[in-house]
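Q: Structure tokens for this one, please.
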Amino acid sequence: MRGPRGGPAGTQLIYGLHAVRAILSRHPERVLGLKILRNREDSRAQEIESLAQRHGRAVERVSAEALTRALGDVVHQGIAAEISPLPPWSEDDLLAAIANPSAASASAPLLLALDGVQDPHNLGACLRTADACGALAVIVPRDRAAQLTGAARKVAAGAAESTPVVPCTNLARTLDLLKQAGVWAFGADAEAERNASEVDLTVAAVLVLGAEGRGLRQLTRQRCDGLVHLPRLGAVESLNVSVAAGMLLYEAVRQRSAAAGAGSDRTDRRSAR
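A: Here is the predicted structure, written as tokens:
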């Protein structure tokens, strides 16, 4: 029996240099084996092979035809790994993580929700930025939206193995549950009155972005505590959703870093008295 992405049932095949290197570096115990193109002998492929061998992971040199049979017609860069995937979170998992933050998390939870984003490359790019910004999770609708395919994992460059994805049946309902848990919902809208820099993103927050071209659906928009826009100084009317997500996430990081710095300054001044 084959799994939905080419591995045996319960496993998954990921591909691409960055994605495979990332999971070998962060979670080698979840790597069941590697496939590397037989004639790929460059330094990057050798680095990944050495990393796999260091962690006791099996490496198989295979033909291009074998990789295509396993993965389909994708740009695999001659590297694939069979892994035990990071299980998706349920809504209950997400709410439990918000209610019981880890000791390593010093700031309020930051979440990203994508309202029907269709392109798996955009999902992967959003995941990559969410991981870089320390987001707790990325929320996506279960239907009529991009899911965590091999293409999304490749673009995510390993972030899909460290930042949980939360598929939900009804995004509006999920936002209601998050708000009941003390999370503020801020939707991105090019026509919103307030600039993202004018709202407090140091609180527990979920940043909600709409689908390519269509934007936020009306039900989703109604669940948001506020709508914000990003400044546009040129002639372009809208931004790619993954670019907009990155800008909003980093605005939250900027505000949180500034608030943490201000707190440290106050502590230092008190200590100096």
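A few notes: The chain has nine helices and eleven strands. Residues 12-83 form a domain with the 60s Ribosomal Protein L30; Chain: A; fold (CATH 3.30.1330.30).
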